[in-house]
Amino acid sequence: MDCGSCAATILTALERLPGVSGLKVSITNETLSLVLDEAKTPSTTIESQLKNLGYQTSLMHGASTTANAVPVKAIEKPAPRWWATHKGKIAVTSGLLVVAAYAASIVVPQGSYGVFILATIIASAPVARRAFVAAFAGAPFTIQMLLTIAAVGALFIGAAEEAAIVVFLFSVGEVLEGVAANKARAGIKALGALVPKTAIVDDAGQLREVSAETLRIGQIALVRPGDRVPADGKVIDGMSSVDESPITGESVPKLKEPGAEIFSGSINHDAAIRVRVERTAQNNMIARIIALVEEAQEAKAPTERFIDKFSRIYMPFIVGLSALVAAAPPLLLDGDWSTWIYRGLTLLLIGCPCALVISVPAAIASSLSTAARHGLLVKGGAVVENLAKTQVVAFDKTGTLTVGRPFVTDVIPVAATEMEVLALAGAIERESSHPLAQAVAARVEKDGVSLANATNVRALPGRGMEGTIGSQTVFIGAPRFAAEQTALDTDLIRRFEALEGDGKTVALVVAGSSVAGILAFRDEPRADAQKGLAELKALGVETVMLTGDNARTGQAIGRALGIDVRAEMMPSDKSDVVRQMAGIRHTLMVGDGINDAPALAAAHVGVAMGSGTDVALEAADAALLGNRVADVASLIRLSRATMGNIRQNIGIALGLKALFLVTTITGATGLWMAIIADTGGTVLVTLNALRLLGFFGTWRQKISATPSQVDMTVKAA
Fold it and tell me: Which pTM does this prediction carry?
């Protein structure tokens, strides 16, 4: 299937059959699914009808043939070269016959007419057959029918030469449409190719090669340097840097060590690692991305739905107008029948809406494919349109604008050195799984601090941690509980209150009867958060942060990032605020947690961070697999470019028709120019849409020109 009219013809032909319901046609996947009652219509009838319409079909692997969904798919074979396809053979044959006719006109002028007729009949016969099958199935207004009427009419008025050229050009146009459609599908097919065909399984020390599709949950896969990871899972042995750019779009390799999650399709760089399989091939990240993108491409945008409705009215109107142009002047103005029939037939070809129908889905498909390749998942054309209209973005704080876990931001020595404070805290906290304890452990490892052995370590619920190092009791906890261990002087109180004023959580390290030092913790902004917010501002989009955290912490993060803040909000509060904002301006919400799901659903567009909960990902309209704040601006920028592309496509399609409508009625152009305008318009809008496949590369080249040009170029983009 090469364009929207193909899908419309199939739907019209099948929906009239008894026992058929739930019809869904995917141009992107070249699939049809339906709910079928085989007591009323056997599945062989469906396949026969599709074959009559010109499609080779096969039942999809694993599909049910009882009264359930019956997916039918074009047979999975390597795509043949254009000249080896059925349409390609017709185009080549037609072209050779046209050349032969012109050659005959030189040698035997009287014999060339018959060769032109032969060329017309041979090339138009398969088209006419499809046209009449579609007409009998209830779809009379197809491009095939319009072409058949025009070709037959041209033969009857003695324009055999033009009829042959028109049919030849139509055949070439169909070949070009097929090439363009396959190019548009290539982006999704390339995603599937990221997963390796084979995997090396470690079975109790015995290595064997198996098909990656057969991997089961719990199996151990060996991934050597340079190999692609065959399945989603967790690293259980080894340490290596892994390139996840095919999945998340993140260009910097990530260090993977035991316990780290790893995605199928990512590339192992440094050393061999062993991965425990946690998802089957049918449910891995690549498969989920492909499924989401394919489903999204079939979710029509409002503009596309309007074009579909418009074309249903437009086609009968054009047929009526063509008949009027052919008959009215001879009947009312004593015009020449041959001249006006010719112009009516030309207008019939001019009026074909193929370019108009494909203008929106081609752009949407290219946009979704581009986004997916850069770790941005968008659930449909309607979402793309809404993204392009975004006026304000509301961000959750924790896990969205910030990393989502605390870091040690300050180590302030009091009665000990900085290294001694970390050594004391690390010795006690390393036996705890508390997030603050893990933050201490990370800082100790980063600074290379040597730790002493701590004994009698115990957690004091709600208060802190306590243990013995040597002969000294060490306590770590909030200042109010530390005050129970030792007296706190005014200077010390002033220092930790200043830290709390910056939105940080403070813990005092008490060794014996004195305060050894102060530790301050905070969930820090993501590395690209400030840049991402600046890019949104450059696009003219306002931003606000909604957080359930206390006002002091929220304001501190807000000041650091330069964003307005609304703090101490319950999930219902976030949802209410987003709903109020959406009532005034086009609102996008970005979040990652279960508590963000109501707000994501309340916004015009909900965007989930890829590291978020499944609930957030389900509630959202889009997802950022790379967990980059800057990708929000990228989504909006791509969506705006897509809508601009759609407007260009509609302008091309309607502009060509308006131009040739005038030239046809005035007699300036004839049948062959009409078919060039139709097929040429279809190919033009498709090629224009394909420009979106390279959108991010083109945009990044622009903004990398010079640092001083960045702001100006971002605004222009």
Answer: 0.64
DSSP string, 491-544: HHHHHHHHHHHTT-EEEEEEETTEEEEEEEEEEEEPTTHHHHHHHHHHTT-EEE
**What pLDDT, in 10s, does the model give residues 63-93?**
444 444 444 443 344 556 777 777 788 788 8
- Is residue 322 in some structural domain? no
Which stretch of DSSP H or E encloses residue 636? Answer: helix 630-665
- Domain limit, last residue, from 18, 44, 73: 73
Kindly state the tokens that stand for 278. 């946690």
> Residue 39: which CATH number?
3.30.70.100
Whether 118 and 97 have beta carbons less than 8 Å apart is answered as yes
For residue 705, the model assigns a pLDDT of 41
- Provide the domain limits for residue 267: 198-283
Element (H, E) at 209: strand 206-211
Q: Does residue 645 sit within a domain?
A: no
φ and ψ at 466, to 5 degrees?
-145, 145
290 pLDDT exceeds 80? Answer: no
CA distance 434 to 505: 14
Higher pLDDT, 381 or 273: 273
**Residue 231 maps to which CATH number?**
2.70.150.10
Tens digit of each residue's pLDDT (9 = 90 or more) over 420-478: 999 999 998 887 777 788 889 989 988 988 888 888 888 876 678 899 998 889 999 88
Q: How far apart are CA 695 and CA 304, in angstroms?
A: 21
Q: Any idea which residue has 């101490």 for tokens?
A: 568
Give me the amino acid identity at 249: G
Site of tokens 């109501």:
598
Distance CA 608, CA 377 (A): 10
Number of CB atoms found within 10 A of residue 203's CB: 10
Residue of 267, 265, 264 whose CA lies nearest to 254: 267
Question: What percent of the chain shows pLDDT beyond 90?
Answer: 17
State the number of CA atoms in the 13 A half-sphere of 664 facing the CB.
Answer: 30
Report yes or no: 217 and 278 within 8 Å, Cβ to Cβ.
Answer: yes
Does the residue 166 lie in any domain? no
Q: Domains in the chain: how many in total?
A: 3
Measured in residues, the chain has a length of: 717
For the residues of 230-284, what is the DSSP string, one character each? -SSEEEEE--EEEE-HHHH---S-EEE-TT-EE-TT-EE-SS-EEEEE-S-GGGS
And the tokens for 640?
A: 């705006």
Residue ending a domain, among 73, 100, 122, is 73
Q: Which residues are catalytic?
A: 396
Q: Mind listing the pLDDT tens digit for each residue in 15-40? A: 888 888 888 877 666 788 889 888 88
| Residue 495, in any domain of the structure | yes
CATH number at residue 503: 3.40.1110.10
Residue 659 phi, psi (nearest 5): -60, -50
